[in-house]
Structure formats: C-alpha cells, structure tokens
Fold this protein.
Amino acid sequence: MDTATLTTAERAIELASSGACRSVNEIRQTLRREGRDDVHTTLNTPAINMAIVAAIRASATHGVLSG
C-alpha cells in the first residue's frame, strides 16, 4: 500500500510492525521526515502509544528485528 494514503496513526503502526523503527521516538522522527504535520496531535494519546509499543514488541518477538 502507498504510505501516502495511510493516516499518520496507520503509518506509525506500519513502521512499528515492520521493525523499521525500534521506539516511539524513532517513529515520530520518521513520520516528521516523511512530511506529516500531525505527528504530535495524532500520537499524543495513550491508546495509540500503547498500540505502537505493542507492535514494536511483536515485531521484535517474531524476529523482524535483529541484534
């Protein structure tokens, strides 16, 4: 799927699940580099942060991350 069609929250979960980012902060930085203006507003809720952390942990558990 084209990342431009994803909402910021969806893209954050995608980055977390892919193993491309190892922390919420790294995801925030990546989203800002992608030109998303609503990073703070969108990711500033406990629910989305918990979902991102869970996705990061799941990707690490399933061997997506190495090292």
